[in-house]
Write a structure and sequence with these properties.
The protein has 307 residues and is α+β, with helices and mostly antiparallel strands. The protein has one domain: (Glycosyl)asparaginase (Glutamine Phosphoribosylpyrophosphate, subunit 1, domain 1). Helix content is 35%, strand content 24%. It is globular.
Length: 307
């Protein structure tokens, strides 16, 4: 009998006001989360690797315009799109990441290719774009990434001279997934379009190993979403792994300590999804909501936005 396997994912956290969440909108977001959950779980169910599962889940979210990654990426200060992504496998601690890519249809796929076809972990900017083209990965033009809602958000933020964490609702738009496969291996993947009207060239926590993304079979796999600058300064993902490794905290306790205590003290808003080798899942957030979903091979499933 193979061991328990499981997957958890998120589609961003932040001030998601219940009064602006129509039934149609709620159904659409739930459907988007379920599609990604199905994509990742199917890989695990057939005995596939956790790394393939998190990539499949994140690619599904990148292809859904409701989430700020891939097709739904927000506009930066110059009216363009700069996307970041990373993934990491817990068995070898190999990792790959891209930052500031502008045309990759699925940035997480580009991150995987960096991991498997270069000696590097992170490629950024024009060099990363060139790599994506050289590798023959699917690319798209500006029209693919154009979204009227995102465009209106950008013009609004521009007019007010501010940087927005994705929505007018202040949703921190990042997507990510963590998984445990039937071989007992962990993996994590994260992808984002960043902040609306962000400074050209800005990089958040998502592609930074240890800040927004982490996986180690000895502790946990984590994908974060939130105010990237504060997640970078707090090295959130690795901090949780350290609390487990060096202080012996459980996954739930380590996540709670970092998200609900340490981050709050620095003003860091957001959340994360995490999983350990026993298949325990934690999905804490200190904002009003977080798009999230999880499914285990024991039949338990959870898809939610609010507490």
């Amino acid at each position: 009998m193979s061991q328990l396997f499981a997957i958890a994912l998120h589609g961003g956290a932040g001030t998601i006001a219940p009064e602006t969440m129509t039934e149609e909108k709620y159904a659409a977001y739930t459907q988007g989360l379920k599609a990604a959950l199905d994509a990742g779980y199917a890989v695990l169910e057939r005995g596939g690797a956790s790394l393939d599962a998190v990539q499949a889940a994140v690619m599904s979210l990148e292809d859904c315009p409701l989430f700020n990654a891939g097709k739904g990426a927000v506009f930066n200060s110059t009216g363009g799109h700069e996307m970041d992504a990373a993934l990491m496998e817990g068995s070898t601690k190999r990792a790959g990441a891209v930052a500031g890519v502008t045309a990759a249809r699925n940035p997480v796929q580009a991150a995987r290719t960096v991991m498997e076809h270069t000696e590097h972990v992170l490629l950024s900017g024009p060099g990363a774009d060139q790599f994506v083209r050289e590798q023959g990965l699917p690319i798209e033009g500006p029209d693919y990434f154009f979204n009227q809602f995102r465009y209106d958000q950008w013009k609004e933020a521009q007019a007010e001279g501010r940087v927005q964490l994705d929505h007018s609702e202040k949703k921190m738009g990042t997507v990510g997934a963590v998984a445990l496969d039937q071989s007992g291996n962990l993996a994590a993947a994260t992808s984002t379009g960043g902040m609306t009207n962000k400074q050209y060239g800005r990089v958040g926590d998502s592609p930074l190993i240890g800040a927004g993304t982490w996986a180690d079979n000895h502790t946990c796999a984590i994908s974060c979403t939130g105010h990237g600058e504060l997640f970078i300064r707090s090295v959130v993902a690795y901090d949780i792994a350290c609390l487990m490794e060096y202080k012996g905290l459980s996954l739930a306790d380590a996540c709670h300590k970092v998200v609900m205590d340490k981050l709050v003290k620095t003003g860091g808003e957001g959340g994360l999804v995490a999983i350990d080798q026993a298949g325990n899942i934690a999905m804490p957030f200190n904002s009003s909501g977080m798009y999230r979903a999880a499914r285990k091979s024991d039949g338990t499933e959870n898809i939610a936005i609010y507490r």
